[in-house]
Design a protein that fits this description.
Largest sheet: 2 strands, antiparallel
Shape: elongated
Number of helices: 12
Number of strands: 2
Helix content: 40-55%
Strand order of the largest sheet: 1-2
Order of helices and strands: HHHHHHHHHHHHEE
């Protein structure tokens, strides 16, 4: 049982998102396969002739060619894809809820050529999201509510990655990327909560205290929130 599945009755939109069946046996598109296999001559040739649908196409992990180029730390390929029109995909997220900028930042070691690439992708992403927010197209797929270009949850995650967060409890929450499922649109109410850092601090402190009492591997935890202002919520 995942963190998001335990919390979803409390913090997600009430509407049910449609489940789309995917075939995991579907082969990767040709451009994706070339990038993933490191066949750079083929990858550059395919990228050079790629049209908009090919640049927006996703593999089985929901990744676009731009995301894969960032993962493989290929600045020249990222630049070529952007020139061909992949900038239109900078705001897209993979199955693991990452954007091309997220992947670039994760694979950009200090002083590497990917550092300016990551910064450029992040800037392009911010511009694209700002436009969608202004024209009202950036909305929750579940309830239709307008979404912020960057949620407070994502802002905190970036602070932690940049080493700018001084709260060790908040740092621990983001250390294993447990927040990633909560970036999905149904959890925008939590992700945008005004006092999120305070709530995370209190929750992590409570978990530490509970773990000290029940031990490392409790058979079953029953958590009751009596301070939410909406009555007790009991989930397992």
């Amino acid at each position: 049982e995942t963190t998001s599945s335990r919390l979803s009755p409390v913090i997600s939109c009430r509407a049910t998102m449609p489940v789309v069946a995917r075939s995991r046996r579907r082969p990767d598109p040709e451009l994706h396969a070339a990038i993933g296999a490191g066949r750079w001559e083929d990858a550059f040739a395919l990228a050079q002739s790629a049209d908009a649908p090919a640049l927006a196409e996703r593999n089985r992990a929901g990744r676009t060619p731009l995301m894969l180029a960032a993962i493989m730390s290929k600045p020249a390929l990222v630049e070529l894809l952007l020139q061909r029109g992949a900038a239109a995909t900078v705001g897209e997220r993979s199955e693991s809820k990452r954007t091309a900028a997220d992947y670039a930042e994760e694979h950009a070691a200090s002083g590497s050529p990917m550092v300016p690439v990551a910064a450029r992708l992040r800037a392009l992403e911010s511009e694209a999201l700002a436009v969608r927010r202004q024209d009202g197209t950036l909305r929750c797929l579940t309830c239709g509510a307008p979404l912020a270009a960057t949620s407070r949850l994502e802002h905190l995650a970036r602070r932690v990655r940049a080493g700018a967060e001084a709260n060790p409890l908040v740092e621990r929450f983001f250390a294993d990327r447990l927040h990633v499922p909560l970036l999905a649109p149904p959890f925008h109410l939590l992700a945008g909560y005004k006092h999120l850092a305070k709530e995370l601090t209190e929750s992590m402190s409570a978990c530490d205290a509970l773990q000290a009492v029940v031990g490392e591997q409790p058979e079953q935890w029953h958590v009751v929130d009596l301070c939410c202002g909406c009555g007790a919520r009991h989930f397992r």
